[in-house]
Amino acid sequence: MYRQAAGLIVLTLIATSTIAEPVEYSIDNVVNTFDKEGVVQTAVGYQYWFADKDFAGGKTLKLSVVRPNAATHAPHVHEEDEFFFVLEGTAEFHLEGETATGGPMTSFYCPSGMRHGIRNIGDTELKYLVIKKYHRSP
After folding, report:
1. pLDDT, tens digit, 9 for 90 and up, residues 10-59
2. Mean pLDDT of the chain
3. Domain 34-133 class?
4. Among 21, 99, 111, 119, whose Cα sits 20 to 30 Å from the Cα of 5?
5. Chain center to CA of 48
6. Are 31 and 58 in contact, with CB atoms under 8 Å apart?
7. In the prediction, which pLDDT does 22 show?
8. Domain range summary for the chain, segments of one domain joined by +
9. 29-36 contacts at long range (C-beta below 8 A, 24 or more positions apart)
10. Residue 50: CB atoms within 10 Å
11. pTM to 2 decimal places
12. Is 105:86 a contact under the CB 8 Å cutoff?
């Protein structure tokens, strides 16, 4: 009986340690100004997470910067829907085999489960925001 109870306690500790602690929001943690120290390099530029998956219940905001005539990755499919918002440069957006082009102040929306991608087709850096909500694990 002792061994069974000890096993239950260990399982309970493991299970509860994987549950995310609720975030207490304050002016200090809801304002995020771009900081080069937080940049994540990619093969074609860099990314900066203004809000990652752990901050606001899976809602995220990321800046992506891509060098001219490049893409961060090939068109792909995933469960979450997402918005792209172009800040600078010229983007080509792919959605299920079709394309559209847009510059600053243009948004592109990708519904869940649709093949999509975005690439820089200009001769300057492409800077865009990615707004997405990741689904939480049960």
Report:
1. 333 334 344 556 788 999 999 999 999 999 999 999 999 999 999 999 99
2. 87
3. mainly beta
4. 21
5. 9
6. no
7. 75
8. 34-133
9. 29/55, 34/63
10. 16
11. 0.81
12. yes
